[in-house]
Amino acid sequence: MITDHDELDWERLYRAVYPSVYRALVATLLDAELASDALHDAFLAGLDRPPLHDTNLAGWLFRVAVRKAARARRRPALRLDDASGEPSERNQIDALLDRLSVGQLLRMLSPRQRSIVVAYFYLDQSQEQIAELLGIRRGTVAATISQALGRMRKGEGHVQ
Fold first, then answer.
1. Which of 2, 18, 93, 98 is deepest in the core (most CB within 10 A)?
2. Over the range 80-100, which residues count as b (16 or more CB within 10 Å of their CB) and which as e?
3. From 1.10.150, 1.10.3470, 1.20.140, 1.10.1760, which CATH number describes the 4-158 domain?
4. Domain locations in the chain as residue ranges
5. 34 exposed, middle or buried (CB, 10 Å; 0-12, 13-18, 19+)?
6. Is the pLDDT of residue 94 over 70?
């Protein structure tokens, strides 16, 4: 059971890593709304069952949020359009990603490749940390990064 003191520590740690993990999730999931929902769900999961160590909280939140997002995508969602006529936050972020060559290149990758590349470059996770977080071998992480970068290099000529 989490005490009030533990909740304050958890919230402080969460707020410290939120911006970088959110950006990494948007780049991975290509959906700002889904990224936000999944990150908040991961925070609640941490309140209910905190990670054993806070040394890699960004990685833990990222892994939990990606899993929550995958589950959410499998469920049918009811999305209402913004009736105000102004572009929604999702549309603004999608437009930004479309303008950025990095965003276009990330779209060429599979979700797994995107997750690994984003964790490595955006969150500064080591190959060992990513392997541990995703339950795969470090060699698989290294190979996936190499394949993804190769794919992105080949796609550079097609990005406007």
1. 93
2. eeeeeeeeeebeebbeebeee
3. 1.20.140
4. 4-158
5. buried
6. no
